Amino acid sequence: DRMDVRVRETNLGNVVADALLDYGQSAFTHKSNLAVTNGGGLRETIAKDKPITKGDIIAVLPFGNSVALIQVTGQNIHDMFVKSLGSILQVDESGKTVLEPSGGFLQVSGARVYYDTTLPAEKRILSIDIFDPETGTYKPLNTNETYYLVTNDFLAAGGDGYTMLGGPR
To answer: Is 72 left (phi over 0), alpha (psi -120 to 50) or beta?
Structure first.
């Protein structure tokens, strides 16, 4: 469901982020380590058990964003995920505790983020592993290392408060 992309990882968010990461392996000078897209940019639900059409894709991604590769530090990545997971907690209709819906909640590919939403927002990140496109493996995030992030131009320009993504493109 479209509203889920604002509070949790979803199959729709995964396919969009996976497509960005895949594109980032050959479309730029540097291969991408990870890709993110904002949940608020995914604007429609894909119907279950029906063929996906070009119209469906346009409905999901209606803004015509371009794809950007940004050089970031590991610290930028850490700060980005702190922002993504910084919403307050609430209980959904099924009784499950979830983050408050936020268009800035990130859908991710190329990163494994381990977190605990019961902790204060600035302490929720437990660890982050980042994809190494040269070895095809995940390695612990090094806050001093340089990485390459693929995203849409909205986030690349600091949209949804992601001002830490202002590195070289």
So the answer is: beta
- Specify the pTM: 0.92
Q: If pLDDT is split at 50, 70 and 90, which confidence band does 24 have?
A: very high
* Tens-digit pLDDT profile for residues 97-133: 888 889 999 999 999 999 998 899 899 999 999 999 9
Instruction: Tell me the backbone φ, ψ of residue 82, rounded to 5 degrees.
Output: -60, -45
Of 124, 114, 105, 131, give the one whose Cα is nearest residue 35: 131
CA 163, CA 59: separation in Å to the nearest integer?
27
95: three-class secondary structure by DSSP: coil
Q: Is the per-residue pLDDT at 21 higher than 80? A: yes
| CA–CA separation, 45 and 109 (whole Å) | 20
Structure tokens of 80?
């980005």
* Contact by Cβ (8 Å): 153, 68: yes
